[in-house]
Amino acid sequence: MSNGKKADSQTVYFRSADFPSGGFLFKNRVRIAPNDRGFMFADGLYEVVRSYGGRFFGFAEHLARLRHSLAEVGIDFPEIGELPGIAQELVRRNGLETTAAVAYIQLTRGLCERRYPFPTPPVVPTLYIEVNRLLSAAVEAEQGIAAITVPDIRWSRCDIKWLGLLPNVLARQRAVAQGANEAIFVRDGVVTEGTHTNVFGVKAGVVLTHPSDHHILAGITRAQVIQLCRALRLPVEERPILQAELAGLDELFLTSTTGEITPVVVLDSKPVGRGRPGPLTQQLQRAFRDLISSLSQGD
Ligand SMILES: Cc1ncc(COP(=O)(O)O)c(C=O)c1O
């Protein structure tokens, strides 16, 4: 993910207690204070929304998820409705209208003395948004990727899109160090999700994925894929996939805003199914592409 732009020419949006009016500025002009609770405690949230040819996909769903995250951690951000307009303006200001791009939106509880309890009265949440060109993941989508399984050492509120990503970072690094692309978390013998993806398995024509609960992030792409399964009359079950079932799966794929639907063809150095993207995965990829092209044609 890269804008191909340097920080002195990339326009971003920033608002904080030090800059309460907020505004568009070059990235190298942003000043995050050391006492920002995002910096001190990872006390903040984020969202990643994708745009196709200048149009954002599923912004309402991303905002609904952000509202959930905000409510769960007690950050008051009544200006949430301004986010799509700001992101759209960043697409324009950075010349990203005709390409795939992603908006990264980060919100922290704000700037105050370093104390665990929330500041009283509440302070202005810090808001940072940047939009970057998205590099094509066409090769991964077509050929599939390798993944590894790792113990899920994260907390029990993975439904909150929280800034604290160290377990995800360590797991992904482990995958990369082993020549794989993604790490899939396993908690108490159950496959939960990837470091930045939701996980789907296919067994005997049935599409399986972990239920949406506190152990996974309710992926926007995940929900979209479940809807596509229903539209295509593919049986889909939201039930835990056991680690013990992995070796017997016919197909395995990942979903995310940036990667859409990515087949996993090698897991823990062993082929998944026939070791190439499976037919149901490919059917869902085609249906997803159709959905996106209908969106960019303005349907
Ligand atoms: C832990 C985790 N699970 C799943 C996803 C996929 O969610 P979405 O489809 O909304 O991008 C993400 C996205 O970043 C993630 O971080």
Brief digest:
The protein is of the alpha+beta class and 299 residues long.
Q: Report the sheet-strand fraction.
A: 25-35%
Determine the N-to-C terminus distance: 28 Å
Instruction: Please mark out the parts with pLDDT under 50 across 5 or more consecutive residues, or reply none.
Output: none
- Work out the helicity level: 25-40%
Secondary structure class reads alpha+beta
The strand count comes to 16
Number of H- or I-type helical stretches: 7
> Which value, in Å, is the CA radius of gyration?
20 Å
Could you say which small molecules are bound to this protein?
pyridoxal-5'-phosphate
- What is the ordering of alpha helices and beta strands? EEHEEHHEEHEHEEEEHEEEEEH
> What's the shape?
globular
Largest sheet geometry = 10 strands, mixed
